[in-house]
Design a protein that fits this description.
Length: 143
């Protein structure tokens, strides 16, 4: 019984440390100056919100929806190619997977739908998606 109590106390301490570290990261992220670091700190939460919104949008084709959902699951998954606790490059695999999924969706979903689903700074998504494609490029014999 004493052994179980020790495990529970250890688990409680670990949980408090985890929640405390998340709270500290949130406070520090809010204090970042405007610029690239602040944009990167907000990128993953903005991507998660965008995935949730696009997943339910009927204007999103099935293939794009699947790519978006897979990216959302990748971000939510605790298993990563690069562990999150590694400074600077930890969230890199999440950012790359979500960026690729949004670029893929950006070729199939009207740009205004993506922009409406994006809660963050519009210039960040515009930079990620690249310049808008003209309809002439999408004509017959092109691709």
């Amino acid at each position: 019984m004493t052994d179980l109590r020790g495990w529970l106390i250890g688990l409680g301490i670990a949980l408090v440390c985890l929640v405390g570290s998340w709270a500290l990261l949130l406070v520090l992220a809010r204090r970042l100056p405007p610029g690239i670091l602040r944009d990167l700190a907000a990128f993953i939460p903005d991507c998660v919100t965008t995935v949730r919104r696009l997943r339910k949008d009927p204007r999103v084709p099935r293939r794009a929806r699947i790519a978006i959902v897979v990216a959302g699951i990748w971000v939510a998954s605790p298993i990563d190619l690069i562990p999150e606790f590694i400074p600077v490059i930890g969230p890199l695999d999440d950012i790359v997977v979500v960026a690729l999924a949004l670029r893929y969706a950006g070729r199939q979903v009207p740009r205004e739908v993506l922009m409406a689903a994006w809660p963050g700074e519009p210039r960040l998504l515009e930079r990620l998606l690249g310049p808008p494609r003209s309809r002439v490029e999408d004509g017959p014999g092109q691709g």
